[in-house]
């Protein structure tokens, strides 16, 4: 495939979904429908709810993949109040956040369902736990944090007791993606301990629910929870009302954002995600200066402030939240009209989860991502510097950043298709109907064969590396094109074999070539702290993990690009191999001054979510 696109992995096989007829024929069906109507006061099931409920009542393990707002809770709340299941008794629900639990508990109590919440590590829960141990009338559901489940000896003793008396109906793992050991929230979530459930409570069915799962993440859930013979219930993750767009990040992104909001969504609700705490404060301040009602939010604020800001946003006192990823879990506002990524997200998964908070009311909402390669490097630097994760986790996290980067620099393929493919779902780009920037573009697509240039470019880095020369991204472009204005550069790098070999390539094409080689991991970059304090780190380029293979095979390298119709330098399509002497047809009218402009952005790095 000439164009790098997001890697699609295959979903594991046991995807057999029970048929509608077999579900209706189930002996549990009458009771299930009765509870739906009389206890939950709902009319009909949504997709996969009945299948999930019947499966767990039959004693099977189940994984439920449903978009946020799809109705996952009912999948375990309803069987919890049924008496006819294969396993009966208390349904234990593991949930990561007190706030999420409290909401559900409140709702269930309003439906007169007997539910208990055990979420504190101190002795506050003592009475409830005593009750759980003694009364004959056990609650239908017990909500518990993972810490409570595995760090409280008292709790463990009670559960063992229930298990011995066959009074554990099932374990429910909500937000099960947190079990994925390299996920962002893993360290904090306490979900690691859940891998002992199967061993500690054999014979008790498990239900895992999540709104995000690549096949990789899914595999992690299956393995970590030792699920066997599970039913997988998934559905399309396409969000037709969301519009996707990636914009190259330039200076004064705040202004561009402010203009967008004022023009399209004045007074409407939105979220702007930034990578760093300090950035959220800066951006919120600038947006306020532009007359917008914005507040910042990050994990560095105290609990009270966080609660207050979230409340203000929830009830419309404040329209725009500028936040780190600390903002989101448990956020449920239907009329979010835009989710803007000020910086590159950490993975495609994170991107989907974050953009997924837009447009829950089904009305059109915009997802805009400001892309800069510099931000990619900042992410990589942060991963490299993280002392709390091992090399395997680092490599997976770096890969995730590269995948997101490849998604961003892809200006050809339907974004909806790329995102859905990432979650192993097929999508016909024709159905996008111009609701992503790539499908909406009327610019012509041109293929340019850069095979010879690509090879020579990579050889240049190999030579530099062999000679222990450190070369930055910007200088490498100059050296390859032989165009440095800086005398220094010329003297240092003009001894390279490939110096000036790319002189007939425009800066723009060379930069695209560079970006694609990075995305394919043929090249890699490393940010190093600046030699002078308080200056932006310097990025050096090295051969990447895929370089050896690339140099051995010298595969054909065809770049697909878009260029304006009839614009200056409108391209002629070229296919097949091209001699290096011949300049490619496409040349933008003007070379951008600096191909790595984002270096101006910010010198902050140690700042975290
Ligand atoms: P999720 O956990 O998947 O994000 P929830 O379980 O919180 O979603 O449900 C989202 C909303 O959908 C809730 O307000 C819930 O009451 C509603 N809902 C769930 N199932 C149904 C149904 N079968 N019919 C009508 N409303 C439903
Ligand atoms: Mg939920
Ligand atoms: Zn599209």
UniProtKB/TrEMBL annotation:
Residues 256-400 form the Helicase C-terminal domain. Residues 53-231 form the Helicase ATP-binding domain. Residues 565-597 are annotated as: Disordered. GO terms for cellular component: chromosome; cytoplasm; nucleus. It is found in: Nucleus. One of its GO terms (biological process) is DNA replication. Its cofactor is Zn(2+). It catalyses: Couples ATP hydrolysis with the unwinding of duplex DNA by translocating in the 3'-5' direction. It comes from the Eukaryota. Keywords: ATP-binding, DNA-binding, Helicase, Hydrolase, Isomerase, Nucleotide-binding, Nucleus. The keyword Nucleotide-binding applies. Its EC number is 5.6.2.4. GO terms for molecular function: 3'-5' DNA helicase activity; ATP binding; DNA binding; four-way junction helicase activity; hydrolase activity. Belongs to the helicase family. RecQ subfamily. This is DNA 3'-5' helicase. It comes from Multifurca ochricompacta.
């Amino acid at each position: 495939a000439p164009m790098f696109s997001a890697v699609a992995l295959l979903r594991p096989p046991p995807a057999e979904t029970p048929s509608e007829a077999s579900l209706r024929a189930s002996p549990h069906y009458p009771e299930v429908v009765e509870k739906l109507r009389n206890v939950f006061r709902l009319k009909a099931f949504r997709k996969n709810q009945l299948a999930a409920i019947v499966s767990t009542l039959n004693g099977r393990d189940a994984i439920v993949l449903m978009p946020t707002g799809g109705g996952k809770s009912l999948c375990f709340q309803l069987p919890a109040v049924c008496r006819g299941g294969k396993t009966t008794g208390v349904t234990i629900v593991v949930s990561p956040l007190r706030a999420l639990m409290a909401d559900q508990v409140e709702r269930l109590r309003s439906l007169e369902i007997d539910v208990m919440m055990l979420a504190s590590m101190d002795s506050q829960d003592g009475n409830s736990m005593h009750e759980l141990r003694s009364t004959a009338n056990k609650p239908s559901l017990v909500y518990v944090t993972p810490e409570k489940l595995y760090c409280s000896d008292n709790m463990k003793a009670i559960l063992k007791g229930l298990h011995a008396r066959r009074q554990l109906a099932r374990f429910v793992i909500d937000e099960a993606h947190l079990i994925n050991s390299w996920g962002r929230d893993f360290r904090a979530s306490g979900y690691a301990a859940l891998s002992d459930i199967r061993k500690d409570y054999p014979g008790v069915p498990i239900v895992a629910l999540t709104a995000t799962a690549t096949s990789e993440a899914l595999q992690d859930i299956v393995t970590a929870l030792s699920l066997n013979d599970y039913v997988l219930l998934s559905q399309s993750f396409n969000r037709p009302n969301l519009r996707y767009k990636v914009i190259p990040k330039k200076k004064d992104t705040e202004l561009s954002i402010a203009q967008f909001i004022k023009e399209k969504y004045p007074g409407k609700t939105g979220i702007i995600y930034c990578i760093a705490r300090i950035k959220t404060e800066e951006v919120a301040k600038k947006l306020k200066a532009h007359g917008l009602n914005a507040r910042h939010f990050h994990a560095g604020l105290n609990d009270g402030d966080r609660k207050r800001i979230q409340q203000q946003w929830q009830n419309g006192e404040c329209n725009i939240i500028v936040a780190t990823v600390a903002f989101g879990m448990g956020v449920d506002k239907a009329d979010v009209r835009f989710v803007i990524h000020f910086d590159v997200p950490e993975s495609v998964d994170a991107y989907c989860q974050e953009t997924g908070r837009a447009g829950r009311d089904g009305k059109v909402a915009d997802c805009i991502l400001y892309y800069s390669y510099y931000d990619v490097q900042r992410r990589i630097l942060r991963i490299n510097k993280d002392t709390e994760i091992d090399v395997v986790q680092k490599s997976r996290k770096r890969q995730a950043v590269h995948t997101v980067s490849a998604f961003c620099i892809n200006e050809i393929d339907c974004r909806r298709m790329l995102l859905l493919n990432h979650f192993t779902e097929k999508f016909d780009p024709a159905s996008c109907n111009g609701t992503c920037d790539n499908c909406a573009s009327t610019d012509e697509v041109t293929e340019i064969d850069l095979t010879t240039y690509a090879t020579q470019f990579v050889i240049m880095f190999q030579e530099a590396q062999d000679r222990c020369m450190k070369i930055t991204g910007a200088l490498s472009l100059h050296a390859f094109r032989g165009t440095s204005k800086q005398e220094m550069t010329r003297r240092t790098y003009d001894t390279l074999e490939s110096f000036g070999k790319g002189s007939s390539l425009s800066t723009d094409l060379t930069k695209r070539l560079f970006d694609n080689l990075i995305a394919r991991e043929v090249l890699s970059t490393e940010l190093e702290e600046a030699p002078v304090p308080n200056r932006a780190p310097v990025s050096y380029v090295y051969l990447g993990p895929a370089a050896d293979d690339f140099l051995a095979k010298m595969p054909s390298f065809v770049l697909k690009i878009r260029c304006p119709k009839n614009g200056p330098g409108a391209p002629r399509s070229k296919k097949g191999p091209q001699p290096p002497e011949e300049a490619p047809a496409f040349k933008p009218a003007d070379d951008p001054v600096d191909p790595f402009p984002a270096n101006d952005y910010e010198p902050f790095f140690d700042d975290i979510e």
